[in-house]
Amino acid sequence: MTETEAALKALMLLGLDGDAPAYRLLLSQLGGRLRVYFERRMRDAPGDVEDLVQETLMAVHTRRATYDRAQPFTPWAFALARYKLIDHWRRRKVRMTLPIDDYVEVLAAYAPEPGSAMDLDRALETLPERQRKLVRDVKIEGLSLAQAGERAGVSEGAAKVALHRALKSLGERMRGRADG
């Protein structure tokens, strides 16, 4: 767990328990991180960044009761941000893809403590063969998505989707094993 994740989660938990100053500090600190997140993705429409930050902070506030205290906070908050961004693009009829590398921090927040999770090889074995090969090719061997897709006999876009699903599935499996 990163320092930032630990600090933001602590503030969220205090806020959920009724500590108004901690909750205000959470929203302020999260707002700064969201601003950076949206600025990186909204270079063509910088005027919309602040609106997206505010919409996301409102979503965090209105959906705070759905937050699972046992889970990391930043992936939950940034999932809300991602949905707000996608909704924004849909309203404007913009078609965009988000590079999977943009979610490294989110995926890293789900990483279990060393020694508490199943071995990576065993976790990979739980995936379908094509997903397993894509994870190994891209994340272990360092191939590009295009190269890994070519090896797997699929397009780069299909490889990206399959890799994303594989990483999500691995994260869920490893979290489940680490928790239990």
From TrEMBL:
Residue ranges constituting the RNA polymerase sigma-70 region domain according to the UniProt record: 33-93
RNA polymerase sigma factor 70 region 4 type domain span: 118-170
UniProt entry tagged with the keyword Disulfide bond: no
Keywords from the UniProt entry: DNA-binding, Sigma factor, Transcription, Transcription regulation
Residues annotated as transmembrane: none
CDD domains the record matches: Sigma70_r4
Pfam family, one: Sigma70_r4_2
Protein name: RNA polymerase sigma-70 factor (ECF subfamily)
Biological source species: Caulobacter rhizosphaerae
